[in-house]
Amino acid sequence: MKVDTSVNGDAHILAEQHKEVEKRLFPMRIDHRTIIYVTKDKLTSEYAEKKRRQLCSVPEVEKKGGGCRVTIDVKEIRSLVASGMHFTGITKKIGVSRTTIESILRNII
């Protein structure tokens, strides 16, 4: 939370209030780079897993660029192309962009 003294008032008072809030929070590791601060009641493995899914940082998924990195089954792409499915349909089914599909096809041919 940013302290905006033009809207919220005295910065010193607001900083002290924020310190009091932070004293009641505990660190929770989401992945090797991410730690969030939560209240003690949310310091559970179930809540951590929920946050991992929300932040797209499930162990096999890594944040890169604008979206989440996904695992792509090349055999599935080959079979979809062989069946005559258009790239638009393939991209919707697999969940990646057309350029990603084209790149994969260039690399496997």
List the helices and strands and how they pair.
Elements: H1 5-8, H2 11-23, E1 25-29, E2 35-39, H3 45-54, E3 63-64, E4 67-68, H4 74-82, H5 87-94, H6 98-108
Antiparallel strand pairs: 1-2, 3-4
Kindly summarize this structure in a few lines.
The chain has 109 residues and is of the alpha+beta class.
Structure description:
The structure is a single chain. The protein has 109 residues and is an alpha+beta fold. Among the domains are: 24-59, no CATH class; 74-108. It has helices spanning 5-8, 11-23, 45-54, 74-82, 87-94, 98-108, and strands at residues 25-29, 35-39, 63-64, 67-68. The strands form two sheets. The protein has a two-stranded antiparallel sheet. The chain is elongated and about 65 Å long.
